Amino acid sequence: MRIGFFTAIDGWGGSEVYLRSMILGVRARGHEPVLFGVSGTRLYNEIKQAGVECVAWKNAESVFASLRRDKCGTRNLEGGGGEGIPCASIRPLNRGKTVLLGLIPTWLKLLAGNMCEAAKLTHLFHEHRVDVMHVNVNGYETAGPACRCAGILSLAVYHNTFISEGYWFRRWLIRRNIRSYSHVCFVAPRSRDAWERGTGIGRARTSAIWNGVDVDRFHPRDRSYRQSASETLKIVSVGRLSYVKGYRFLLEAMHSLGDNRVRLELIGEGEQEGELRELAQGLSLDGCVTLVGNSERPEDYLRSADVFVLASVAHESCPLVIPEAMACGLPLITSDFGALPDMNIDGDTGLVVPAGDSAALAEAIRRLADDPELAAAMGDTARKRAVSTFSLDRMIRDTLDLYESLCSAADRNIKQKEARDGASRE
């Protein structure tokens, strides 16, 4: 089977790790993957170096340039780095164009942009035919309508939680695009339910497949769990340093805990790094909290820890770091946001606390610090759940089954149509 993988993302995160795993995984199982991606990105470069066919539909530099605007909302006319040309220095002709563009309704500009992008992708998909297109959805991707126009089966995989858009036309675009796919898959059952309620798409056209991780790469540590409550408890949290992850509440919990036994390492980088460093310093946490930065081997930090914490407050659907931590045999403390309580079973694989509640978070940490036997038992259960529910092999196998069912259904429809046409001619 020739399988296309489409993405519009120009960065690197959990959904890109997912795509890399899927592309290499289906190739290892004898299929022919093709990446339709943004050239110049890490994902594009790594997949190309791995010998997989790559088709660039956009360049990373053009993406970055389109995002650079000055304070008046005009594009950066230099097309390079910097903050763009201020309004006062724009030539009269460009100023006139800007004024004219400002008179066009927002919905019409959005519609024109979507139509242009869909037309471009339709042409590209015609040139590079695949049996089914796997669309990695993180926003308003127009690959669905393009696949329909090109006559290609499409499976959309939504990694984000459903958020009700404030602008009416964006809401319309979301509903229109999700209905354009042959089938829609979500990385968590609760996300599936939310999207069905928010868009009205029928259950017959949706599925849910948990994200999966390499449980052999993320395996438990060799050393035994801490034996005494008096020993140091090392907590680790891995993820982008963003408000989404609720790190502010974790630092506040560490401060209110005031326990010299507890140490915290934050693994990752992001826009909130400076703010978190200032907060840690302001709360006098320099001695017990370390911001490590990015790591290409998070398993090393997970295996050296005693507890994993993710206090997310927004957007999370099925963050890969949770099954990674579970596979390493760590007990979990997570918030109750989104699908996190479906991944971390409260009292079984770990503890679940209300999102944004630093006091409850501190109490959960104290509970595991005081009860090493409970923490060790939860870690063992977490490892078993990771192997049975969140393995990479299971994720790839289930997704391949979806591809094949889509192709089989399409073949049946073609044969039924041919039979009806033959009967009508007779």
**Estimated radius of gyration:** 24 Å
Order of helices and strands: EHEHEHHHEHEHEHEEHEHEHEHEHEHHH
* Name given to the CATH architecture of the largest domain: 3-Layer(aba) Sandwich
Q: What characteristic shape results from the CA principal axes?
A: globular
Query: Might you state the CATH topology name of the largest domain?
Result: Rossmann fold
By DSSP (H or I, 4+ residues per run), the number of helices equals 16
The CATH superfamily name of the largest domain is Glycogen Phosphorylase B
Give the amount of beta strand, in percent.
15-25%
Biggest sheet architecture: 7 strands, parallel
Which strands sit side by side, in order, in the main sheet? 3-2-1-4-5-6-7
Number of DSSP strands? 13
How many discrete structural domains?
Answer: 2
Which residue ranges are poorly predicted, with pLDDT under 50 across at least 5 consecutive positions? 63-93
Instruction: Give average pLDDT, whole number.
Output: 87
Helix content: 40-55%
Q: Distance N terminus to C terminus?
A: 36 Å
Task: Please identify the top-level CATH class of the largest domain.
Answer: Alpha Beta
Provide the structure class. alpha/beta
